[in-house]
Amino acid sequence: MRFPPSFIEEIKQRLPVSAVVGKRVRLQKAGREWKGLSPFNSEKTPSFFVNDQKQAWFDFSSGKNGNIFTFVMETEGLSFPEAVERLAGEAGLQVPQMSREAEEREEKRASLYDVMEMAARFFEEQLRAAAGSKARAYLGGRDLGLETQRAFRLGFAPNEKFALRDWLASKGVAKEAMIEAGLLVHGDDIAVPYDRFRDRVMFPIADSRGKIIAFGGRAMEKDVPAKYLNSPDTPLFHKGHVLYNHHIARKAAHDRGTVIAVEGYVDVIAMSRAGFPNAVAPLGTALTQDQLGLLWRMGDEPILCFDGDKAGRRAAYRAIDNALPLLQPGKSLRFALLPEGQDPDDLLRTQGAGAIETAIGAARPLAELLWTREYEAQPLDTPERRAAFEARMREALSAISDESVRRHYRADMDERLRGLFDIRRDRPPRGGGWGGPGRNFDRAPGGRFGGGASFASGLAAKASPGLASHPMFAARPSATPREAMILAIFARHPVLLERRIEELADLHLTGRDAERFRRGLIDVVGSEAEPEAIPGLMQRIGLTAQLAHLEGLVRPGDRWLLDPEANLSRVSDALRQALALHRRAVTLHTELKAAERALAESDDETALARILEVKTELADLDGTEADPDEAAAAAGSRSRA
What we know:
Blueprint: H1 5-14, H2 17-21, E1 28-30, E2 33-36, E3 48-51, E4 56-59, E5 64-66, H3 68-76, H4 80-90, H5 100-128, H6 133-141, H7 146-151, E6 155-157, H8 163-170, H9 175-180, E7 184-185, E8 194-195, E9 200-206, E10 212-219, E11 228-230, H10 246-256, E12 260-261, H11 265-273, E13 279-280, H12 289-298, E14 303-308, H13 310-323, E15 334-340, H14 344-351, H15 353-361, E16 364-365, H16 366-375, H17 383-397, H18 403-420, H19 455-462, H20 465-468, H21 481-492, H22 494-499, H23 501-506, H24 512-526, H25 534-540, H26 543-553, H27 568-602, H28 605-622, H29 630-636
Parallel strand pairs: 12-13, 12-14, 14-15
Antiparallel strand pairs: 1-2, 2-3, 3-4, 4-5, 6-9, 7-8, 9-10, 10-11, 15-16
C-alpha cells in the first residue's frame, strides 16, 4: 500500500522518536540525546541512542538504525503499512485511502513545491534587478547585506499586477496551480487573477525539510492596509503548523540545547546575525499548540523573546495560556522581554549583540511570569482582592493537565502566596516576578524586633530557657553552600548583580548571614552606583568581611565562579542553574513539611513514601551544582563575553 509522502512526514512531525521508542526502551536523558539498553541484544551498558532532532535512533550493539517506522517494524514484526497505521493512530491521524483522486492530489501537491521554488527564484532575481533598488536600499539600511539576503533567500515582488503571473506562465505553470499555491488573488468578482504580493520585500517560508511552502511580504510603502502579508492557507501551508526558519534552526537548536522564538522575520534574521541561529518565529499569530510542539521537539525549555512593549507582554501572556495545558515533566518555557519599545533588530543595531545576549541570559521561567501576570492584574490592598488573586492563581493552575506538573506548580505557588501574605513577619512581604513587589521591601528596617527578624525570633528573645530551646526558636544556620555561592557570585560579578537584582530580591534564604548580606547587596544596587563602583561601596558598608565568610562556605569545586575574571557567560549559566536548584530545594522543603504534617495527622503510608521520595530528591539536589570541570574551561577563557 502506498502512502502520500506528506502523510508520512506529518506522522514523523507529530511523534518524537523518543516518545515511540520510550514505550519499549527505558530511556534516560544524555545531553541532547536519549540513551538506553538495546532492545535487540542483552547488555548492561547502554549502546542505544535516540535523537529527536534527527528523527532517528541508533543501536551500536546490533548496528541497526532507523526512524519511528523501522523501530516499530523491528521490535513488533510489523510490515511497513501496519507500522504506518499503528503510528498514525498514535498521532491522531486517519490513514488516507490512496484512490486515484488521492494520488492526483499528491501529484499536484508535489508540483506545487516546484511552483513555489520557481516563485522564490523570481523574487530573488527581482531584488538584484533595477526594479529592486529601493528594496535593496531598505535592506541595507537595516544592515541586511548581500550575504544575509542570500542566506535567507530574500527577494522583491515588483509593484506590478501581473509580473509573477506572466513570468510563471512563460515557464509553463498553469493559472490554477498559481492560485492553489496562494500566489494569485482570485474570486468570483475578480475577472482576471492578479499577483498577491506587490511592492514588497519577500521572505520565503520553508517547511522542516527546507522546501518553500509560502511567503511573507513586507510592504515598501507606509499607507498600505497590511504592513506584513503572509500567503493564505494552501495544500502546502497552514500557518498555525509552521515556524519561520525551522529548517535552519533545528540543527542549531540541537547543538545548543535550546531554541528561541521571536515575533517576526526580521527579528529571526537579527538573532541569527547576533549569534543565535537557533531562532524561529510564528507567522503573525500567537503561538499555537502545534507550534509549541515543534518548539519542544527542538528543546525542553524554549525561550520566548518578545518586544519590550505592552503588545509583547500580551503576547507572552497568551503563550502562557496556550502552554499550560501542554506542560509535561521537563517541558516548559522561559520568557525574555526586551527593553521598552525595542525588538531584536532594534537592539542589535543600537546596542550590539551583547545586549541581545544579556536579554536572553535573563530569561525567566514560565512560573514566574504567570505569577507576575496575576499579581499585576489588580491591587492587593484588601482581603477580598487578595482572595481574588489567590483564586486566579488556582484557576490558572487548573489548566495544567499533567498531574505531576500541576502538583509541583501548586506547591510553588503556595510557597509564593505564603511569602506574599505572610502575617508572621513584621515587615512588608516579598513578592516575585518582573515589576512585582519586593525590590525595596527587604531594605526596610524590619519590624518591632528590628533587623527584619521573624516574629518567632522576637518571641524567643522573651521566652523562658526551656521554651527558647524548642526547635521553633532554633537559630538559623549561617548559610547553605548553595546560598553562599549564589550571593558570592552576585558580589564578585556586579554586572550580573545589576541584571538579576529582582531575582536576588525574591530569593528565599534560610541562613541569617545570607539574609543580612542579601539586604546589603540590595542597598548597594539601590544607591544606583555604576557596576565598577559596587566593590568600593561594599567595602564602605562592611560587606567585604561578610563576603569572605560566605566564600569560605562555598564548595571548593565551585570557587572558580568567584574569580572576577572568569568567563561571564559560563558564570551566568552556572548562576542560573544554582538559582533553579535553590528554588527547587525550597519547594521540596515545603512539600516535605506538608508530608510530615500529613504523616503526623493520619499515619498514612502514602505520606511516609512521599517523605522518603522528597528526601531522596533533596539529597540529589545537594550533589548537583555547577560543573567542576567548568573551572578548567573558565581558566582557559578569560574573556568577559
